[in-house]
Specification:
Shape: globular
Strand order of the largest sheet: 1-4-3-2
Protein name: VOC family protein
CATH class: Alpha Beta
Helix content: 10-25%
Pfam family, one: Glyoxalase
Distance between the termini: 36 Å
Order of helices and strands: EHEEEEHEEE
CATH superfamily: 2,3-Dihydroxybiphenyl 1,2-Dioxygenase, domain 1
InterPro entries: Glyas_Bleomycin-R_OHBP_Dase, Glyas_Fos-R_dOase_dom, VOC_core
CATH topology: 2,3-Dihydroxybiphenyl 1,2-Dioxygenase, domain 1
Radius of gyration: 15 Å
Organism: Antrihabitans stalactiti
Number of helices: 2
CATH architecture: Roll
Largest sheet: 4 strands, mixed
Structural class: alpha/beta
Length: about 130
């Protein structure tokens, strides 16, 4: 069973950010599956499609963090390039994060609504974790 069931991000303009997420979620293999006046839903690939996150208006709060697991480092870097092309703020460039795990490779992006989006994968070439102290 997956660790992440779903996440709902608050946004101000569903149409504008929905277009942005259509492209980014597409990199992770997800698809936009439903729309209402106050909610857009995205699902994981497979049969049956399973909702894994939504964008909604009028929920309160900001700075939600969403991590999408992608296939490999190439997809993480493509997400970084796409974010730059879309004019998004890059919070952290793609790199290994050995403080999380020796093979944790990710990029952190600010979406147009101010949320923190992470694209992560298991790196093919892990570096040893340095001892703390």
């Amino acid at each position: 069973m997956p660790l992440l069931d779903h996440v709902v991000l608050q946004v101000d303009d569903l149409n504008a950010i929905g277009d942005w997420y259509n492209q980014v979620v597409g990199l992770a293999g997800g698809t936009r599956t439903f729309d209402t006046p106050t909610l857009i839903g995205y699902a994981l690939p497979g049969e049956p499609a399973q909702l894994f996150f939504s964008l909604a208006t009028d929920l309160g709060g900001r700075q939600t963090h969403l991590a999408l697991r992608v296939e490999d480092e190439t997809i993480v870097r493509r997400g970084h390039e796409l974010a730059i092309a879309l004019g998004s703020e890059i919070l952290h460039e793609p790199r290994l994060w050995p403080e999380y795990a020796p093979d944790y490779y990710a990029v952190f992006i600010r979406d147009p609504a101010g949320n923190n989006l992470e694209l992560k994968c298991q790196a093919s070439t892990a570096q040893p974790t340095l001892p703390r102290g």
